[in-house]
DNA sequence: CAGTGGTCTAGACCACTGT
DNA sequence: CAGTGGTCTAGACCACTGG
């Protein structure tokens, strides 16, 4: 029964009878309309939320989930030519798209690396960790941590909260680590409770987990950036040569 | 209360007191242990399932979700050098990884393209659609549809269920469409009910939606491949040049 | 068969929202 | 304040699993 109710609502949403942001019938309405108990109705609404089709707001109602504008990450976003500006890439790009960018909870620390990070960076004893959260129009969309071998980053502008124009990649190149290429690994999964909090994720929204490793021209890994993104806010775009 | 129960179980899982595939305490056990009603316990277990930490099996119990082996898709997987074999790339690679590959529900049809596909392919009136499902060790992991402009694919080996060694990309190149590059777009979201069925997805498992467009050396889009993957079965890997 | 999870009921009280 | 969703109870019957 609760599946039938969910199907009915899903179809109504698909057919446009309810649009993004519209309020669905209240639980009481559905109880009356379908002649079932409230738990059954709640079960149906819960299904739609798990599918990412609806969000509930306490005291207000259940709404068709609005599709936020997505941020497109192009595969050339770290190309050197995009780096000679005074502002961070995120800021430039967000303003170009007409959004209000913010960077938040910036934290720079020396740490002992996790096993995974350590392996990717060639087993340094300690690393510099740069954490920050990105927001668009007040909405958190991404939480990222950069790790650099401490022997490379200590007492450099990279250890400062604001590393200066062009970001840490520009600083690395100034320090003689000409960047050669980046490896990116992409996974998708449901968020942990902590991630739900920091990214203010609605239920039914997965995260994209991206781990990028930057290599210098000698093949040494110089940075690993671990990024968790709200999946409904991003499209990742890559261009691959046919050979 | 149900959050506390979920927290307790989550912590026990994180700390390894329950391992992958282990059975969690039954609902009755939890009711007795925490002194709450069954709905409260079910609420807690449902949370863990939404997080992708647990799966329930009717009549058996609730189990810590096993992490299946992931398939790594490298960004050079369509490089020409990987194409001169007799078998499909999926098959070769799966066997190398020690898995048993299968391809399933193969279907080749002429269709009118959706608006999105049409735009990507330069607005052909009709397209050839090649649908197929991929399985590893009996488990569905990916459902893919390739679309090609019909004027390009009609009456060619591409319109056959088995297009021959090297797949449709090899055939396209034989037909004079030398491939130049691919664009890939990646999104993650929760699956539709239909996708849950065809990929046999557990709750709490998102899908990765990948749309790849192949361009020939004249810049013409010659194929769009729309792929939906079980997110717990894949890591996508890309290599980006620093310039 | 006993034990498990799946569904549903009927009712209660609470917390949040907007008027 | 009325209307909304959030949580919880106590109980019932069902469907599936395994011995």
Q: Topology, please?
A:
2 copies of one chain form a homodimer.
Chain A: H1 2-14, H2 27-34, H3 38-50, E1 54-57, E2 61-64, E3 71-73, H4 89-96, E4 101-111, H5 115-120, E5 127-136, E6 139-149, H6 150-153, H7 167-174, E7 179-189, H8 193-199, E8 207-216, E9 221-230, E10 234-241
Parallel strand pairs in A: 3-10
Antiparallel strand pairs in A: 1-2, 4-5, 5-6, 6-9, 7-8, 8-9
Chain A binds a DNA duplex (19 and 19 nucleotides) through helix 3.
Detailed description of the structure:
- Two copies of one chain form a homodimer.
- Chain A has two domains: 2-64, Arc Repressor Mutant, subunit A; 71-236, Chorismate lyase.
- In chain A, 37% of the residues are buried.
- The mean pLDDT of chain A is 91.
- The first copy, chain A, is built from eight helices and ten strands.
- Helix content of chain A is 28%, strand content 34%.
- In chain A, a hairpin with a 3-residue loop joins strand 1 (54-57) and strand 2 (61-64).
- The N and C termini of chain A lie far apart (54 Å).
- Chain A has helices spanning 2-14, 27-34, 38-50, 89-96, 115-120, 150-153, 167-174, 193-199, and strands spanning 54-57, 61-64, 71-73, 101-111, 127-136, 139-149, 179-189, 207-216, 221-230, 234-241.
- By secondary structure, chain A is α+β, with helices and mostly antiparallel strands.
- In chain A, helix 2 (27-34) crosses helix 3.
- In chain A, the strands form three sheets. A six-stranded antiparallel β-sheet of chain A has the order 4-5-6-9-8-7. Chain A has a two-stranded antiparallel ribbon with strand order 1-2.
- The interface between A and B is large, with 47 and 47 residues.
- The structure holds a DNA duplex (19 and 19 nucleotides).
């Amino acid at each position: 029964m609760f599946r039938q109710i969910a199907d009915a609502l899903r179809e109504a949403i698909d057919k446009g009878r309810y649009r993004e942001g519209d309020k669905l019938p209240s639980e009481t309405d559905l109880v009356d309309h379908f002649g079932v108990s409230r738990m059954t109705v709640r079960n149906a609404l819960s299904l739609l939320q798990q599918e990412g089709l609806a969000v509930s707001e306490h005291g207000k109602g259940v709404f068709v989930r609005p599709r936020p504008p997505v941020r497109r990450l192009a595969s050339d976003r770290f190309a050197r030519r995009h780096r000679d500006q005074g502002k961070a890439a995120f800021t430039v790009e967000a303003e170009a798209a007409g959004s209000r960018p913010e960077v938040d909870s910036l934290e720079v620390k020396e740490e002992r690396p996790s096993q995974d990070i350590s392996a990717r960076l060639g087993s340094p004893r300690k690393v510099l960790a740069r954490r920050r959260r990105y927001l668009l129009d007040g909405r958190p969309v991404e939480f990222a941590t950069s790790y650099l071998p401490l022997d490379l980053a200590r007492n450099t502008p990279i250890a400062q909260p604001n590393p200066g124009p062009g970001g840490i990649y520009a600083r690395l190149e100034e320090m003689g680590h000409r960047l050669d290429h980046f490896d990116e690994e992409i996974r998708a999964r449901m968020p942990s409770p902590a991630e739900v909090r920091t990214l203010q994720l609605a239920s039914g929204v997965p995260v994209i987990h991206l781990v990028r490793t930057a290599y210098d021209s000698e093949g040494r890994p110089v940075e690993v950036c671990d990024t968790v993104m709200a999946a409904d806010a991003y499209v990742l775009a890559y261009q691959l040569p046919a050979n």
